[in-house]
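In the design runs reported in the main text, the only information available to the sequence generator was the tokenized backbone. The following block is the verbatim input for one such run; it is reproduced so that readers can re-run the procedure and compare outputs position by position.
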């Protein structure tokens, strides 16, 4: 019987509802816990960051604007790569099958709000969030959503315009500071969103959007990279 990797992946992501708040874990430990749960459902081969950089790094293209990934060769069985672009870059992990990949970012806080730091959500990346819902809430501690369902195109345009304006302003001040001594200003945008993700009334529809995206995902792209 032909395998349906998308159904297996959906089952793995939905099983994340069963994990509680990962309060005792941080950073990489949370990423690896989520990866292990999903990996068991899709029976994927795990590829480390080092192994990927050494043997596979130039096999494909990551689209910065959307979060899509296309490869030059077929991956079968599916592979899961931890931090394929390094620890400081999106995504946290990626699942490759045939010649396309789905990228994931994991987020965790002690509350319900995500600190986005300097990265705006990318449309086609799946974000997995583990937080701390109110004690009387009926929702679980883990949810998932598409980047495109978290921020609108208009909001993205304004956020990027604000960032560019800030960078130009800082550049102007640095030019004035340079002849005075050794000091300068380093601009780093910090994006924030007050969305209470775990209890938001859109939570279920956002999760369904992820399921629909995976279900309709074409793992075989005709035009090779």
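Verbatim output:
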């Amino acid at each position: 019987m032909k395998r349906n990797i998308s159904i297996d992946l959906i089952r793995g992501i939905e099983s994340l509802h069963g994990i509680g708040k990962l309060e005792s874990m941080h950073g990489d430990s949370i990423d690896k816990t989520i990866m292990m749960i999903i990996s068991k459902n899709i029976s994927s081969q795990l590829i480390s960051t080092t192994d990927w950089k050494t043997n596979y790094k130039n096999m494909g293209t990551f689209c910065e604007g959307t979060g899509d990934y296309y490869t030059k060769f077929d991956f079968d069985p599916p592979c899961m790569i931890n931090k394929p672009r390094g620890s400081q870059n999106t995504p946290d992990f990626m699942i490759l099958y045939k010649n396309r990949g789905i990228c994931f970012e994991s987020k965790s806080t002690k509350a319900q709000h995500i600190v986005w730091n300097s990265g705006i959500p990318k449309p086609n990346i799946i974000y997995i969030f583990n937080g701390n819902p109110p004690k009387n809430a009926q929702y679980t501690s883990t949810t998932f959503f598409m980047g495109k369902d978290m921020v609108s195109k208009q909001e993205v345009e304004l956020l990027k315009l604000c960032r560019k304006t800030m960078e130009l302003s800082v550049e102007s001040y640095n030019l004035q500071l340079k002849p005075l001594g050794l000091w300068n200003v380093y601009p780093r945008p910090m994006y924030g969103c007050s969305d209470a993700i775990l209890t938001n009334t859109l939570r279920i529809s956002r999760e369904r959007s992820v399921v629909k995206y995976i279900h309709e995902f074409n793992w075989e792209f005709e035009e090779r990279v």
